């Protein structure tokens, strides 16, 4: 690997988590591994290039673009990573109003449904974590999508 690819993988790990990246890199097929490097260099390399956009800004853009394109698997992946990117629930909710206005109601409705799934999974994980710790999970309940 080179420095640019190393930096892209490091940011991908920081945003999506080790488990996700390790799962993607676990491929034994050399072509699949090469494809992961290509995707990481292309998609995550743009995150590491610097410039006036913050990680939070880039995350909001990715959420808007994946919602607009109907790429719900990627939308859910990035929505699930919001705590690592500095994007709030309220910002994603507002983003979907923008998606509806500029990309159409069907795209925004699909993203809203996907977001509801993400938030339900997050709430379930918090409940399990609270049960494991011997008490209720702290913090507020995620806002309904």
Quick tags:
single chain; 145 residues; mainly alpha; 8 helices; globular; disordered C terminus
If you had to describe this structure to a student in words, what would you say it looks like?
This protein has 145 residues and is mainly α. It has helices at 3-16, 18-25, 30-44, 55-68, 72-80, 82-85, 89-103, 105-132. Helix 1 crosses helix 3 and helix 4 crosses helix 7. It is globular. The relative contact order is 0.10. Residues 136-145 have low confidence and may be disordered.
Summarize this, please?
By secondary structure, the chain is mainly alpha-helical.
Content-based structural category: mainly alpha
State mean pLDDT (0 to 100 scale): 90
Number of strands: 0
Portion of residues in beta strands equals under 5%
Number of helical regions: 8
- Strand-and-helix sequence, N→C? HHHHHHHH
What summary fits the major beta sheet? none
Uncertain runs with pLDDT below 50, 5 residues or more?
A: 136-145
Shape: globular
Secondary structure: helix percent: over 70%
Rg estimate, integer Å:
17 Å
Q: Could you give the distance between the termini?
A: 41 Å
């Amino acid at each position: 690997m080179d420095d640019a690819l190393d930096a892209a993988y490091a940011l991908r790990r920081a945003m999506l988590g080790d488990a996700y990246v390790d799962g993607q890199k676990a491929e034994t097929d050399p072509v699949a591994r090469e494809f992961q490097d290509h995707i990481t260099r292309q998609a995550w390399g743009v995150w590491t290039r610097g410039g006036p956009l913050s990680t939070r800004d880039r995350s909001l853009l990715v959420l808007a673009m994946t919602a607009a394109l109907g790429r719900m698997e990627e939308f859910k992946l990035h929505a699930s990573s919001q705590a690592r990117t500095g994007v709030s629930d309220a910002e994603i909710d507002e983003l979907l109003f923008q998606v509806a206005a500029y990309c159409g109601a069907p795209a925004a409705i699909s993203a809203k449904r996907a977001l509801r799934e993400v938030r339900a999974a997050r709430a379930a994980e918090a409940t399990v974590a609270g049960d494991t710790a011997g008490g209720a999970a702290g913090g507020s309940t995620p806002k309904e999508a």
